[in-house]
Amino acid sequence: MQTTQHVFFERSEMKDRHLVRKKIREHIADKAKLPILIFPEGTCINNTSVMMFKKGSFEVGGTIHPVAIKYDPRFGDAFWNSTKYSIMTHVFNVMTSWAIVCNVWYLPPMVKEEGEDAVHFANRVKAVIAAQGGMSVLPWDGGLKRKNVEDSFKEEQQKKYCQIV
C-alpha cells in the first residue's frame, strides 16, 4: 500500500482529517496522477442498502465517478456478518464458495452543483448508486451496526411507521 500512494488516517483525529483533505486536494490538482478510489460509506453491509456517505470525500471538489457494486450471493456470499461468523469462518466460506459474482456499474461523472453543500452532493451521488444497484437508501452510517441505537432514533422511526399505518 505504501508504494501506491495510499492515504492513511485516524477518523477520530481532527488533525488527520484536515491532512487527508489537503492530500486529496493536492492529488486531484495533479492531472498526472491516477484517480483516487474512495469508499465513502466507510464499511460494508449486507448488499441490500447504501448507507450514509462520509461527507469528507465530497468536500474536496473535483469530479466524482460513481460506481455501483452489488454482489450476487447465489454461488457464494462476500458479505461478512461479523456478529455471526468469525473472520476465519468467513474466509473459509469465501474460499470454498463456488464463485463470488459481483455486478459493477460505472455511472456518469457527477460534480457538485452551484450552492450545493457536501452533504447534499453526497446524498445525490448515493441516490444514483442505490437506484442503479436496486438498493434502498439508508440515512445512517455503518457505525450503527457496531453500537446500540439511541432511544430517540428508535422513537423517531416508530413515529414515522405509525404515520404510515
UniProtKB/TrEMBL annotation:
Q: Name one GO cellular component term.
A: endoplasmic reticulum membrane
Specify the Phospholipid/glycerol acyltransferase domain's residue ranges: 1-70
Identify the domain of life.
Eukaryota
Annotated GO biological process:
phospholipid biosynthetic process; triglyceride biosynthetic process
Look up keyword Acyltransferase and say if it applies.
Answer: yes
Known pathway = Phospholipid metabolism; CDP-diacylglycerol biosynthesis; CDP-diacylglycerol from sn-glycerol 3-phosphate: step 1/3; Lipid metabolism; Glycerolipid metabolism; triacylglycerol biosynthesis
Q: Which GO terms describe its molecular function?
A: glycerol-3-phosphate O-acyltransferase activity
Membrane topology per the entry is: Multi-pass membrane protein
Question: Could you tell me where this protein is found in the cell?
Answer: Endoplasmic reticulum membrane
Q: Which SUPFAM superfamilies match?
A: Glycerol-3-phosphate (1)-acyltransferase
State the UniProt keywords alphabetically: Acyltransferase, Endoplasmic reticulum, Lipid biosynthesis, Lipid metabolism, Membrane, Phospholipid biosynthesis, Phospholipid metabolism, Transferase, Transmembrane, Transmembrane helix
Asked whether the UniProt record includes Magnesium among its keywords, one would answer no
Q: Which is one Pfam family of this protein?
A: Acyltransferase
Q: Which family does it belong to?
A: Belongs to the 1-acyl-sn-glycerol-3-phosphate acyltransferase family.
Q: What's the protein name?
A: Glycerol-3-phosphate acyltransferase 3
